[in-house]
């Protein structure tokens, strides 16, 4: 064992080499991390810019196609409003050939649908014959067209969230509006075409409301609200987003729970805007491919380094096995010593409990002499009252005799209270915790100390709050602590000219009982709460009172501290958690 504890040159050299290898591996890991991060950032920015340029080109193409369709359709109401056949039909009320004419115009021009409304808003001609006879008097395109002589564009929401886009113009007969021609623009075909692409596309009007979108739930919502509806709300979803987007710039938005890049352009029509949301999948695939090659290269270097270390570790494994066998023997011996120490500790705890009870019984013996004096006084008074009652009964005065009997009953109650206090103090405290009012515990302790207090002239001041100070404690053990503190204060003021003990009970964050005396103070604060430490003369104490009191307060979840007062004397402070504060701390 002694030879194994002396470091040899080989062991020292091995440790130096081990530190160098570890440093080299750490530098390799740092270099690999730096290269991967820099490469990822640079490639992500480069490929993202390429993807953004392609998205802008697609956006310009989508916008141009949509504007072309709108412009082509806008001239149809102007042509039909000046058609003499439609004007004659509205004048005569004969619409037998109107629908056929509108169907022929639709096939030649290629618009979505055409509807002719009379002056009351009733459909009198339509490319869709199922609409004949329907009334559109309250529609915006009918009302707006009658108020002006120009062509009116209307975007009106339909059931299901989709929008209907129409051009309408009034048809005049003899200088008066006789009907309205309504031509629908088929913009939904572009929406269907965009849905087949990977990008998400939406179009907003001048007020920011989504009127076309590849996501059906976006239609009719403000753009901010539409995008917010697709954000990921679960913790797992957010974690996956953070894991997927760790290596790129912050995403512009989230669509279907995926980070996307937003591209925006103005549509040259009524303040519309078009936006596309392109996923980063293509960017990540290209960047991750290059990063995988870099990581693979560094992994090969790491594998080679670990292989070299494993050969060296194998050569040292034999010596480690020998040392481990010696350590197992040492561990077994230590376990035996620990078991012996635990047994001694348990024996010591039993001895401390026995000594604590002995200390209580010793204090009980000290109080017994004074208590006997207290019991003799009521007994003598009872004898006098009995003799007086006998005379009163003989003189036929029973009412006054009953008063004497009542006084005798009061004296018996007082004697019973004294004996009950002695019994409760003599028995061992249990572990039954209950709500205890510290004010009542202090009063009970003072009552038990009353015989000793009457033997000396000591000024005792009490400062108590008006409200109860409730703590969760074993009442017997708590009163034992207070009695021990009072006895120490009485002993400390034995040689003081004007002895005084101050008892201060306060309630704040915790319940605090302060016992302050004007005695000689504490000479050794460090060892004050150690078992068997005492400053009393031999035969007057064993030095367990404060040690036992400190243990009891600790078991109750509190703390017992001591210090010297500035003007002389000692100050003991017992802090216990209040019942309400204890529940809040537990929660």
UniProtKB/TrEMBL annotation:
Record key words, sorted: ATP-binding, Cell inner membrane, Cell membrane, Coiled coil, Kinase, Membrane, Nucleotide-binding, Phosphoprotein, Transferase, Transmembrane, Transmembrane helix, Two-component regulatory system
Top-level EC class: transferase
Major localisation: membrane
Coiled-coil boundaries: 322-354
One Pfam family this sequence matches: HisKA
EC number(s) given by UniProt: 2.7.13.3
Gene3D superfamilies xrefs: 1.10.287.130, 6.10.250.3020, Histidine kinase-like ATPase, C-terminal domain, PAS domain
Gene Ontology MF, one: phosphorelay sensor kinase activity
Domain of life, per lineage: Bacteria
Chemical reaction(s) catalysed: ATP + protein L-histidine = ADP + protein N-phospho-L-histidine
Membrane topology: Multi-pass membrane protein
Location in the cell: Cell inner membrane
Domain Histidine kinase: residue ranges: 370-580
Spans traversing the lipid bilayer: 23-43, 290-309
GO cellular component: plasma membrane
Function: Member of the two-component regulatory system DctB/DctD involved in the transport of C4-dicarboxylates. DctB functions as a membrane-associated protein kinase that phosphorylates DctD in response to environmental signals.
Protein name per Swiss-Prot or TrEMBL: C4-dicarboxylate transport sensor protein DctB
Organism: Paragemmobacter straminiformis
């Amino acid at each position: 064992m002694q030879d194994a504890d002396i470091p040899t040159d080989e062991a020292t050299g091995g440790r130096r080499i081990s530190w160098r290898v570890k440093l080299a591996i750490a530098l390799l890991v740092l270099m690999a991390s730096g290269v991967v991060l820099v490469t990822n950032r640079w490639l992500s920015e480069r490929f993202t810019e390429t993807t953004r340029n392609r998205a802008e080109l697609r956006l310009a193409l989508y916008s141009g196609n949509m504007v072309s369709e709108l412009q082509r359709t806008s001239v149809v109401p102007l042509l039909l409003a000046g058609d003499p056949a439609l004007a004659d039909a509205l004048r005569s009320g004969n619409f037998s050939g109107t629908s056929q004419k509108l169907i022929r115009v639709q096939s030649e021009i290629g618009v979505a649908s055409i509807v002719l409304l009379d002056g009351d808003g009733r459909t009198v001609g339509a490319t869709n014959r199922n609409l004949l006879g329907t009334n559109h008097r309250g529609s915006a395109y009918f009302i707006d067209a009658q108020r002006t002589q120009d062509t009116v564009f209307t975007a009106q929401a339909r059931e299901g969230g989709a929008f209907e886009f129409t051009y309408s113009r009034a048809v005049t007969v003899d200088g008066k509006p006789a009907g309205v021609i309504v031509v629908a623009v088929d913009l939904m075909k572009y929406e269907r075409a965009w849905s087949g692409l990977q990008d998400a596309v939406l179009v907003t009007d001048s007020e920011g409301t989504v009127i076309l979108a590849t996501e059906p739930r976006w239609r009719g919502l403000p753009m901010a609200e539409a995008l917010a509806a697709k954000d990921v709300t679960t913790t797992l979803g957010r974690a996956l987003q953070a894991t997927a987007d760790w290596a790129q710039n912050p995403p512009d938005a989230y669509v279907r729970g995926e980070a996307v890049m937003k591209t925006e352009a103005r549509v040259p029509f009524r303040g519309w805007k078009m936006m596309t949301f392109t996923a980063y999948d293509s960017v990540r695939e290209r960047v991750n491919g290059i990063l995988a090659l870099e990581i693979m290269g560094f992994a090969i270097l790491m594998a080679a380094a670990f292989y070299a270390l494993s050969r060296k570790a194998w050569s040292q494994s034999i010596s480690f096995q020998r040392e481990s066998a010696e350590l197992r023997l040492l561990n077994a011996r230590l376990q035996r010593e620990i078991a012996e120490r635990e047994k001694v500790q348990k024996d010591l705890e039993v001895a401390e409990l026995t000594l604590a009870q002995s200390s209580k019984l010793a204090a009980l013996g000290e109080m017994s002499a004074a208590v006997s004096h207290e019991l003799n006084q009521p007994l003598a008074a009872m004898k006098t009252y009995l003799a007086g009652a006998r005379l009163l009964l003989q003189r036929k005065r029973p009412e006054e005799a009953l008063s004497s009997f009542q006084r005798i009953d009061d004296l018996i109650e007082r004697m019973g209270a004294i004996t009950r206090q002695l019994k409760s103090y003599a028995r061992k405290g249990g572990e039954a915790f209950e709500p205890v009012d510290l004010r009542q515990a202090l009063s009970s302790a003072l009552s038990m100390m009353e015989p000793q207090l009457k033997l000396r002239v000591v000024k005792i001041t009490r400062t108590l709050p008006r409200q109860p100070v409730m703590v969760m404690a074993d009442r017997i053990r708590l009163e034992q602590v207070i009695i021990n503190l009072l006895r120490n204060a009485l002993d400390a003021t034995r040689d003081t000219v004007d002895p005084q003990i101050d008892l201060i009970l306060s309630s704040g964050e915790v319940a605090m009982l302060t016992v302050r005396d004007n005695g000689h103070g504490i000479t050794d604060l460090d060892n004050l709460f150690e078992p068997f430490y005492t400053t009393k003369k031999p035969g007057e104490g064993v030095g367990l009172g404060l040690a036992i009191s400190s243990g009891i307060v600790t078991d109750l979840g509190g703390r017992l501290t001591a210090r010297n007062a500035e003007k002389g004397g000692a100050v003991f402070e017992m802090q216990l958690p209040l019942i309400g504060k204890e529940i809040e701390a537990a929660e």
